[in-house]
Specification:
The protein has 432 residues and is of the alpha/beta class. It has two domains: 205 residues, Periplasmic binding protein-like II (D-Maltodextrin-Binding Protein, domain 2), CATH 3.40.190; 207 residues, Periplasmic binding protein-like II (D-Maltodextrin-Binding Protein, domain 2). A hairpin with a 2-residue loop joins strand 4 and strand 5. The two termini are 35 Å apart.
Length: 432
């Protein structure tokens, strides 16, 4: 996918000249306000700045309602089920999940006829569509994923090289510990980050267990039936037990990742490559961007680059009294000028899934890394039914495994139980 997205940019569709015209297509009443409700870290400062520009052009105000990640889904569903949803609500895309988790056919507006859909990346479009109807817009960088970002200087000073196996990765971590360097900054307190070690290597699971995706999605096998899934969890647990995350990982927070990786106290962390510049900046001159590199998650000797076509998306609430204004907002942020503004002004976004002639902000190192991908596979939270909706619970279970209250087998059985409950709730015939 990564190569496809980059290639698609070469034939960008020019939309910039239509932005102001489209913004005037609906005459808003004085003081009209649309609400955009999203989970924490789904709306960046750069988008809120675009919201101010949108108001200046249209007179339509945008009220961003940002909710803590662990409270968001329950709060959103309470609002949707009571008929009091926001004009635009955020949700993780995924062709399975937008039906089972958000019931978009009932709760969202069909956006298929919107102009921006013509520029929308096909891979991302598939994950926000049901029966050929587009219900959402993924407004997130899906061209890269989370990789192990490592400090090259620390590696060189300790005679270390990029690992190609999990055993090599273990040796690296132990060498760092022996030299009083914490190997990995893992922020468990936020309730989402630690789970990615397990789910992002979906392509490796597919390679080791051919047909695993179809078999899980058709309920022919359970998570608990697959030894490779247990092994990955066991390796992740070993990382915690052996001290690779340091002493405070259960209370460490994602907001401190840049600072801690930039301090040199930690050697590695799971992060998107677009954040490397921010890590270098947080180091106060100790490191430059060139001092950091990346490699794929090494569990199970993984060598498959992750594809992650899903991400935080925007849906127009079917009960909104301001549907046309909400559609205008989506058209505005998907325009060429807005897409380029997001790329230029948000570290986490190197590209967005639209073909509007934008220039991505990939560093040379990132582009080289992406071009080197010989094998690619889709992350499990995107390819497996009923997995992403239980992210919070799964993350809690992994913490329980870390502290000894659950085993890897317990975690897998819990995944299976929750998947069955969700499947039965939506009438999935494979679980009948």
């Amino acid at each position: 996918m990564k190569k496809r997205v980059v290639a698609a940019l070469l034939c960008g569709v020019m939309v910039a000249g239509t932005m102001s015209v489209q913004a005037q297509s609906v005459l808003a009443d004085e003081g009209t306000t649309i609400t955009v409700m999203a989970s924490q870290d789904w709306v960046y400062d750069a988008e809120m700045e675009l919201g101010k520009q949108f108001e200046e052009e249209t007179g339509i105000k945008v009220d961003y309602q940002i909710v803590p990640a662990d409270q968001y889904y329950n709060m959103l569903m309470t609002k949707l089920n009571s008929g009091e949803g926001p004009d635009i609500f955020g949700g993780q895309s995924g062709s399975f999940d937008i039906v089972s988790q958000y019931n978009v056919e009932k709760n969202a507006v069909d956006l298929s006829d919107q102009a921006w859909v013509e520029t929308y990346d096909e891979f991302a479009k598939e994950q926000t569509s049901v029966d050929g109807k587009v219900y959402g817009m993924t407004y997130y960088d899906v061209s890269t994923d989370y990789y192990v970002v490592y400090n090259k200087k620390i590696f060189e000073e300790n005679g270390l090289e990029v690992p190609t196996t999990y055993a090599e990765f273990e040796e690296i971590c132990q060498t760092l510990l022996d030299n009083d360097i914490i190997p990995i900054y893992e922020p468990c307190a936020d309730g989402w980050h630690q789970t990615m070690w397990f789910t992002e290597i979906g392509g490796k699971y597919e390679e080791l267990v051919p047909g695993i995706v179809d078999d899980l999605n058709n309920n022919k096998i359970k998570f608990a039936d697959v030894p490779e899934l247990k092994e990955a969890l066991d390796q992740l647990n070993d990382m915690a037990q052996k001290g690779y995350f340091g002493d405070n990982y259960l209370s460490d927070e994602y907001t401190d990742l840049l600072m801690n990786l930039g301090s040199g106290e930690y050697a590695m962390a799971l992060e998107k490559p677009g954040q490397i510049a921010a890590i270098a900046e947080a180091s106060d001159g100790q490191y430059t961007e060139d001092d950091f590199g990346m490699f794929v998650i090494p569990l199970l000797d993984n060598d498959v680059y992750p594809q992650h076509p899903c991400g935080p998306s925007r849906f127009v609430y079917s009960g909104s009294e301001h549907q046309e204004e909400a559609k205008q907002y989506l058209e505005y942020i998907a325009s060429a000028d807005s897409v380029q503004y997001m790329i230029d002004n948000c570290d986490k976004i190197e590209n967005l899934p639209f073909d509007v002639g934008q220039t991505p902000s990939y560093s040379e190192a990132t582009q080289t890394f992406l071009d080197a991908a010989e094998k690619e596979g889709t992350v499990f939270q995107d390819s497996i039914k009923y997995l992403n909706p239980q992210w919070t619970e799964l993350t809690q279970d992994i913490v329980s495994m870390f502290i000894g209250d659950m085993t890897s087998e317990d975690v897998l059985n819990a995944i299976d139980e929750r998947r069955a409950t969700q499947a039965e709730a939506v009438g999935d015939e494979n679980w009948q």
